[in-house]
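Q: A small favour: would you put together sequence and C-alpha cells for a protein?
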Amino acid sequence: MPTPDKPKILVVNDDANSLFALTSLLAQWAEQASYEVLAARSGQDALRQVLMHDLAVILLDVNMPGMDGFETAEAIHARARSADIPIIFVTAFLADELDRLKAYQHGAVDFLFTPVIPQVLYAKISVFVALAMKNEELKKQARQLSQRTTELTATNQRLTREIEERKSMERQNHAKDEFLAMLGHELRNPLSAISSAASLIGLPGVSADGVQRAKKIIQRQSQHLGRIVDDLLDLSRAMSGKILLNRAPLDLAALVGQTLETYRATGRSADYDLVLDLDAGWIDGDSTRLEQISSNLLDNALKYTPTGGRVEVRTWTENDDVVLSVRDNGVGIPAELLPHVFDVFVQGSSTLDRSQGGLGIGLSLVRRLAELHGGSVAAESAGPDRGSTFTLRLPRIEHPVAAAPAPAPIAEHGKPRVLLIEDNDDGREMMTMMLGGYGYDVTAAADGLLGLSAAQDYQPDLALVDIGLPGIDGYEVARRLRADPATRDIRLIALTGYGLAEDLRRVMEAGFDRHLVKPVDIDQLMAAIDTCARVPVKQ
C-alpha cells in the first residue's frame, strides 16, 4: 500500500514494456526523492487512479488506443478535484510535429520525447515533486492555522458569553436589591400607618370620629398589604407555571367594559379623560386572569399619567388576533428602559415616577398571563413625557353558539346535598360549618374509605374530595365512586394543594368534574358547586 504522505507520480502507457521501463526508471530515485510511483495501462485506468489518489504529476502517453492522451487529459481536468494536476505528455514525435497548442489546451505543462533521457526525466519530475511537497506543507500549515483560529474564536466566544452572563447577573442582582429595598419601603408605609392608627385608638380622650378614621386607615392599609402579597404570589405562581386557567369563550370587549365600569364606580378614573372604543372579539380565556391583565394595564396608565391626562382603551380584531390597546399621554418610557418594562424586578427602577407607590411587578404578571393564554403583550413609547402604548394580542375564536338554558338544580329543595371528604380536622369542621351556613345539607368523612361508605349511605348529589387522603387518596375515591352504579352520578369536585397542569390531568382522568386549588375562596367554591349541580355528570 502506498504511503499517503509521499507525493505520487502516475505513469500512463498502454505499452507494457514502455510502462515498465518508465516506472522502473522512476523507482530508482523514489527513495532518494521521497515519492511513490503508480501505473495505469489505459485512460480509464488513469481516471480510476486519479479518483483514488492525490497526484504530484502525471506522465501521460499521447498515442493510446481507445481513449488517447488528449481525451484522458481532458477528462482528468474536467473534474474539480483533479483539475490542477500537472500533466507531462510522453510522445515519440518531436515538439514541432506535435500539435503543441492542442496539448497545452488539454492541460500539458511539459513534454518528454522517447527515448527518454533519464537525467531529463529526473529534472522534470523533481520540480513537480518538490512543488507537491511544498503545497502539502502549506496545506498542513493552513489546517493548523484554521484549527488555531477556530480554537481562538471559540475561546473568544466563551469569554464574551461569560462576560455577558456576568454583566447580566450583576444587573439582575442590582435590580433585585432595588426591588427588595422598594418592597421594604412599600411594606413599611402601610405597617407604619396601621401601627399609628392602632396607637391612636388606645390613647385616652380620642374622639369617636378619630377612632372611626383610625379603623378605616387600618382596614385600607391592610387591604393594601394584601394586594402586595397577592401580587407577589401571583407572579411567583405564573413564573413557575402553577397558574391553571379556567378557560371559557368570552368577549374581550365586554370583559374590559366591566373592568372600566368598576373603575368608574369606585372613582379611580374620575380625574382622567377616559376614551373607550370597544369592538367585540371572542377568545378562549380565563375571565379572572384577563380582568387582572386589563386592570394592571389600566392601573399602569393611570399611575404614570398626570391628573387630567388622556387614557384611550380600545379593542378590535386583527386577522387571527383579538387586540386590546391602552394608550396614555403620561410620563412615557425612556428608550433604555423600554426593552425591559416586562422583566421581573425591572419595574422598580427609580427611572419611573414612584409617587403613587406599588411594587411595579404588574407588567411582569401581564406578560406571563398573556403567554399562558397563547398571546403576547408589547410596549411602545416615543420617550419621556410622550406617553406610552401597551398592546395585548390574544388568539381569536369564532363567536360561540348560544348554549341551551341550564337545567334546574338537581336537588328538589334548590341546593345539592354535599359530602365532604377531608382528613384535616380543623379544615373539615370549618368547611362543614361554612357550607351549612350557606344552607347546604352536609355530611363529612375523615378519610377515603369512610367517604365511600358515607356516599353509599347518604347518596349525596355532590362530593368535595381532598386529594391527599390517608389510606386511599382522592383519585382512588373518585375511581371507585364512578365504578359503582349506585354512586356514579355524584358530581365530584377535587380539593388539592397542587395546581400544576399534570395534577389537573390526573384529576380529570380519575373522573372529577372540577378541580379547585387550596386555599379555596368561598365565592369560588359556591360558584363551582352551583356550576357542577347544573351540568351533566362526567362519566
